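Sample A.
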Amino acid sequence: MTNNRNNHEIDYKIYGEEMQFVEIELDYQETAIAESGSMMMMDDGVQMQTIFGDGSAQQPTGFLGKLISAGKRVITGESLFMTAFTNEVQGKKKVSFAAPYTGKIIPMDLQELGGTIIAQKDAFLCAAKGVSVGIHFQRKLGVGIFGGEGFIMQKLEGDGMAFLHAGGFIVEKNLAPGEVLKIDTGCVVAYSPSVDFDIEFVKGVKNFMFGGEGLFFARLEGPGKVWIQSLPISRLAGRIIAYGTYKRKEEGSVLGGLGNLFDGRE
């Protein structure tokens, strides 16, 4: 591990393929922070404490300051509280955090990534204590309205380990200066602050009326890193809802049952 960190140093291991969890190893008095409800299991000797915000050094001091800082997280759709897990005994102890849906856990060493990452609102899973989980406002009106994630995203700052979760398969791309990548707006997981994030209107009447890809692309211009997910949770949820509410006209008949067999719906 790299030395001279301000945040807690933690070792980790990721288990699983489609439904992953991350196991974090804590030395004595080391702490990991996580979203409420993400803990899967922990060793005896690890103490759990509910805290306002993320408990980072960047938070304002005093109860009112911490309350205001934690309240900003509500804007991003997260809970007012986070949970801190601290090893209170000598020796190494482990705590594990599970992904909320099918996909991959992305480990990010913020020290090696320049200290800051911008992520979609529900991507954060857990991190070493000291990592600040704040908010990032989109400055461009078009991105805020049509960019898939709205005006507000999460901003992770610090020099420790942070773990994001995203759906499907995850692709990490390094964009050279001036290199442009066009992505479905829902597939953007995270990016370096040096990346210019904008939206682009889909050209051609037939494309946006019948192409099924929406009216806008996310336009990312380097330099910097970009993390992309193949299956946004919004897309998955939409397909499940559509499947659950779709009713074939011939359902309930003998022929309808045979039709469902042939098209794989039985």
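Sample B, a different protein:
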Amino acid sequence: MVKNLGENNSILNQFIAEVRDKEIQNDRIRFRRNLERIGEIFAYEISKTLDYTPKDVPTPLGSKRMHLPSDQPVLATILRAGLPMHNGLLNYFDSSGNAFISAYRKYHSANDFDVHIEYASSPKIEDKTLILSDPMLATASSMALAYRELLKNGQPSHAHLVTIIASSEGVKALEKELGNENITIWVGAIDEHLTKKAYIVPGLGDAGDLAFGKKLE
């Protein structure tokens, strides 16, 4: 199942417009904060899908029965670009366990590369709700490999794969590879074009560089 939040008018579209805007991108703090705010919006929407349990909450004047989440999800992200968005999700799911995965592209030529997992740190995710986020979904190789890596720590009851901007090719690839599993794909926008170097067009550029500065190649 694919849920494209950008199809409906909301404040989310303003934040996505700002992370795309090449002039606003010059403000690195604002770029990171927008990624964080987008993560918060995804967290709110995903929270509607969780299981809830009634609980009597004491107040100074009595008690009130409320329905509260039965369990906190495990939040996972792909370093380094995913950190601000992950922090937004964590702002709402603030008692969650956290997982971090280092993935990188190993280029064989200008247009030929493989994605490799270098490092992963995760709690047990058996029977938990898993939320795996990465701001960009180009070929979907990183997201799929990261998800498979996390399965070494257990089988989640449901997985939410969250990205801000995806290519249509990446969404189709993710559906093809993981479509038989209990997964929901969440996107903020879907762009149609993917270059030979696997850059999303119009996209927004390199989210990691924009958030944290250019890295050595």
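Observation for Sample B: The first strand starts at residue 2 and ends at 4.
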